[in-house]
Amino acid sequence: MDKFLQAIESVNGEINSVVWGAFGLLLLVGTGIIVTVLTKFFQVSHVGLWFKHTLGSMFKKDVIKHSKEKGVISPFQALCTALAATVGTGNIAGVAAAICVGGAGSVFWMWVAAFFGMMTNYAENVLGIFYRRKNENDEWAGGAMYYLADGLGKKRGMKYVGKVLAILFCIFTMLASFGIGSMGQVNKIVTNVAQAFDVSSLSSVEVFTGVSLYNIIIGAIIMVLTALITLGGLKRIAAVAEKIVPFMVVLFVLGSLTVICVNYANVFPAFKAIFVNAFKPEAFVGGGIGVVISKVVTQGFKRGVFSNEAGLGSSVMVHSNSNVKEPVKQGMWGVFEVFADTMVVCTMTALVILTAGGLNGGVFNAVTGEIAAGYTDATLVGGAFNTVFSWGNIGEKFIAITMFLFAFTTILGWSHYGSKAWEYLFGAKTTVVFRIIHVITVIFGAVLTSSLAWDISDTFNGLMMIPNLIGVLALSPLVVKITNNYLRREKKGENIEPMYNYDPEIQAQEVAHKTEE
């Protein structure tokens, strides 16, 4: 087993260095910048609009009402399922890992990636709704594979390029669902639960190097729970997500605010450290522009993408099942999704780590880059909570429970993503085969080392990102056209035909339905 894991680590390292090299990072941030500029900074210039149609409409009947249509979910369920997949270990352990490797400055680059990522996610969702179609089960099917094949593929000389990229995207999505959507999440659950709720009689029994019997038992329990939900399909996943996600996000934010308020004197120094170290890393990271790029910027972007998934083309696969007809309306949920995930939840995590016990001590020393004894990036946030909730290690237990909820819902969301990729390649009737395979991979997360689980997830993210972003870039003028069409109708009151779908037949049906409403 040890030699097998070493071989995986070696191969993964080679691929990772390519997909997360200069090309991958430039493509990721460049796409967000281009879409932002083309839409005239939509996330800023229309901030009131997208807040009104997301957070401001959260309790409206047409947003939260369940649909009786087969395979269709409400916009709120789509958001919760997408957030279930995005708000995961990346928001806790991922932020901690970025800070441990790249220092406080990596948080700034997470913000930068998120700011432009809002518009990348917006574009993905707009294209997802516009190019979606009904599958053989008469359910909506959408995602990057469809706008690659039917959007990019319809451009002159790009027919086969679009189809090949669509197939590659599906393959990478299935692999990513085993990494970011299974093994990486389970690994962090096991690490935190095993430390916070130790059972010495089980944890003392070593099955593999560094893997205890307790780890495997926890992994097996998660595997059973995953099977009970994911094998029921999207409707069951969405029903669970809409109940758990709001609760877990509010719970974590309230807990984080408590820790931050107790350490209020360290808040401004923490923000200073974030901005200063973003451009001038401390000695433990090393000086020089090369190290700034490789350590601080790269960590910020990688962990940012791992956290909010903007650029992966993942959440569009659940947003496409929404009963919303307007591509722009669902696109605005994509903007809010990245905002809530990174700007709110990840920032809370970073401030908890940097303020707990002081920047020059506590659980993490921002000056020396040293982690307090007994902690790793996976358990750092739990240690920070323990500085305030110390009685009976309540803080650590709180984070272990939060991590379980965050990570478990991510597994559910990514099961759907992987199944949609499988559906595109092999048909909707066979998706149960993928769900069974995905459930089985859960146990592997319990036996991988923490660093390897993260590295594999990073690699699959990068592989998935490349074909998707090529499609978003090529179709960005269309995104602008659809956006302007919506703004002319909704803000200027012009009587023009809406742009709902690329397929004339579906377009006519959607227009007819809208007229009847």
Structure, briefly:
The chain is an all-alpha fold and 517 residues long. The chain has helices at residues 2-19, 22-38, 42-45, 47-52, 61-64, 75-86, 93-102, 105-130, 144-149, 159-196, 200-203, 213-230, 234-262, 267-279, 289-308, 316-319, 327-355, 380-386, 394-426, 431-441, 450-474, 476-490, 504-516; strands at 133-134, 140-141, 206-208, 211-212. The chain is globular and about 65 Å long.
Please characterize this protein's 3D structure.
This protein is an all-alpha fold. It has a single domain, classed as Amino acid/polyamine transporter I (Up-down Bundle). The chain has helices at residues 2-19, 22-38, 42-45, 47-52, 61-64, 75-86, 93-102, 105-130, 144-149, 159-196, 200-203, 213-230, 234-262, 267-279, 289-308, 316-319, 327-355, 380-386, 394-426, 431-441, 450-474, 476-490, 504-516; strands at 133-134, 140-141, 206-208, 211-212. It has a two-stranded antiparallel sheet. It has a two-stranded antiparallel sheet with strand order 3-4. Helix 1 (2-19) packs parallel to helix 21, helix 6 packs across helix 13 and helix 7 (93-102) packs antiparallel against helix 15. The longest helix is centred in the middle third of the chain and has 38 residues, at 159-196. The chain starts with a helix and ends with a helix.
Task: Describe the structure using short key phrases.
Amino acid/polyamine transporter I, two-stranded antiparallel sheet, 70% helix, mainly alpha, 517 residues, globular
